[in-house]
Amino acid sequence: MQHRVEVDGLRAFAVLPVMFFHAGFGWISGGFIGVDIFFVISGFLITAIIQKELSQSRFTLVGFYERRARRILPALFVTLLLCLPFAWWLMDVAQFYSFGKSLIAVVLFIANFFFGVEANYFAPSAELMPLLHMWSLAVEEQFYVVFPLLMIVLARIGVTGGGVSGGGTSGGSVTRGRLLVAILAGIALITFGVTVYMSTVSPVMNFYWPVGRAWELLAGAIAALLYRRAETKTALQEGAAFLGITLVIGAMFLLTPELRLPSEYSLPAVVGTVLILVAADNRTIVGRFLSWRPFVEIGLISYSAYLLHQPVFAFARLYLGMEPPVIVAVALLGLTLVLARLSWQLVEEPVRHKQGRFYPSRNALFACSAVLIGAFGVTGWAFAKTDIAATRVSPDMVQALEMRKGVRRFVKDCQYAALSYDFKVPETLADHCFGPIPDTEIVDGQGGEHAAPFAMIIGDSFAGVMADQTMDMLASRGWRSARMTVPGCASFPGFRLDRDRLQCDRSFERLFKIIQQQKPDLLIVINRYNYLFNNTPFDNGEGGHEKHGPFGQYSHDPVGPDHRVAQRGAKIVDDGMAQLRSVVPHIALIYPIPEAGWNVPYLYARQVARGVYSGAISTSYDLYRARNGAAIAVLDRQISAQVIKVDPAPLFCGLPGHDDRCLNSLGDRVFYGDSNHLSDIGVAKVVDLLRAQLPAIRRPTD
Fold it and tell me: How far is residue 644's CA from residue 637's CA, in Å, rounded to a whole number?
């Protein structure tokens, strides 16, 4: 196939939206769809090359993988090398360990599987993972392990040809070409169907799973087989190209991270890209638009730009401890493009094409690649599996990390154990994550009316993080206690963590049966109401903006217009509390805990290290009131002789000298373990408040 300049321009339309999206520019809500566009383009170009060489009986796997190595590995190795000193300088211990593991996964091209596990509810924030975007590279390379073999097999059984049609081809060749399209289309439809199904039952796996992207690569492959440059431009060609660019641009601005992607929602961008590839040559308006020199120049460096943009922004966020201001984000975009140009000119082009002494032979290429893969693998192992991480962390960072231990303790096992949602977990995890859950006979009162009162702590991860200290406090007062907490699941039916499709309602049903069976004297209910009632991550307006990527958005069931979220949430809380009040004599409602938005321990450590710590980190009290007003109003109407109010806000907000602020840290006390969960110090403040309420709670038999 003759080189098509407009395809280079299309690459710019793939990489720029991804860069804008990861830079935090909310106006391009669907910028992540650029990855899907890349997959289609990749399938198109690779298939065109394979089919041409097969038709000429000169295709070899060694030659194919040599081209892939020349295209992929040099710029990748340079990017990884550039990441090493910044990771050493800027990352805390947990981030550094994760980076080491991700380094191994990247060079082995299994990053998609690694991040499918690592990017869980409590994982380091996606925007702070410099290698997270490498999952797409792994998916592509896994596809190209299978696809050339499939094409060889089909060629050997006679399913081959120069395309569906073309000048000078025989009728038999045309027929075989159509058969090849039909076979690939059948596989694409099957994988698309699996993708749509998986998007509803396991979206996280679907996002990273190769099958979830195979149909997009196959769509590009089919486009390559369908493409034939017509002798004259037609109105149909012009219309198809215009429709294609409209679908692509529309997807960039209309899709949102909360959608189940990849899925049927990915179709417009994929179909649009196929239409552009098939119809938009340089004689069409769209083709000439995409051939505009700035687009072409960016398209040429798009691979290096894609590799470099995530590390640039991740390390900038790590340095600042927060989201970069707009002017800084724009400067970082410019820096990325400059670095990408240098990478393309000094690394990509010399290795791909015979340019001077930098063009390695095939054997040298494979040998050097093997050595570098081994070197990066060993480096990643050293980062992840040895104590080297602790040697490069400042005392300030160590102190800050101690503030996170409450969150980390809960996270270590519970986010995995919770996935069962029927609490059928190994005995070793049951007590740690959900219990201990006493036997019915014990709760029902061996010891009669003199038995110790029994409390249960229920809720989402906020409850899980607070459970240990709460249970210790209850034990010190002569209470027995248990906890039933599930990350991402509020203690009322109807809320769900949409992207993970958690079975929260099923979890509540099981929880409610246990409550009916165990008959606790007290329920302590702790949830992240501020998120549940707003359906959005928290943005403190000062650089602290939670970004849960495609996996952390709450929704209600059924999902409806945004203005109805609070009303629907109110009904769910009212109904859920009614159920709980029907079986429990006393309920303690922990009111909304102020959110921070930024990773407080890390921001504290970075500010201290840079000598800019003012003595406190805080957010707006007015913003807390505005964001939590609806939730507080609903909780207020639950309060009665049976339900007591435990409001943490006065512990952190409106304190002397900080009248209009909510404190995230004060002096060397850091109140949060991340951007929203309290640290042990913060939990202790709330538990002390709860302790003061306990004397008002009596067993019905007292």
Answer: 11
Identity of the residue numbered 219? A
Q: Cβ atoms within 10 A of the Cβ of 311, count?
A: 22
The vertex-583 CA angle with 578 and 584, nearest 5°, equals: 95
- In whole angstroms, give the CA distance from residue 236 to residue 279: 9
**Higher per-residue confidence, 85 vs 2:** 85
Spatial separation of the C-alpha atoms in residues 594 and 654, rounded to whole Å: 12
User: CA–CA distance from 13 to each of 16, 30, 37, 251, 307 (Å)?
Assistant: 6, 12, 8, 12, 16
Show Cβ contacts of residue 692 under 8 Å, excluding neighbours closer than 6 positions: none
Q: What is the DSSP annotation of 468-522?
A: HHHHHHHHHTT-EEEEEE-TT--SSTTEEEGGGT--HHHHHHHHHHHHHHH--SE
- Please name the amino acid found at residue 79: T
Question: Sign of the C-alpha dihedral, residues 314, 307, 246, 273?
Answer: negative
Q: How far apart are CA 256 and CA 697, in angstroms?
A: 46
Give the pTM.
Answer: 0.78
> What is the C-alpha separation between 37 and 299, in angstroms, rounded?
13
Tokens representing residue 223 in the block: 């486009």
CA dist 592 and 527 (Å) reads 7
Tokens of 180: 């090849």
Query: 586-590 and 643-646 as β-strands: parallel, antiparallel, unpaired?
Result: parallel
- Distance, CA of 205 to CA of 501 (rounded, Å): 11
pLDDT band per the 50, 70, 90 thresholds, residue 496: low
Position 422 scores a pLDDT of 35
User: For residue 251, what pLDDT is reported?
Assistant: 94
In the chain, how many H helices and how many E strands? Answer: 30, 11
Which pair of tokens denotes residue 675? 């951007």
- Please write the tens of the pLDDT for every residue from 281-320: 888 999 999 999 999 999 999 999 999 999 999 999 988 8
pLDDT tens digit sequence for 391-450: 665 666 566 555 555 554 444 444 333 333 333 334 443 444 444 333 333 333 323 344
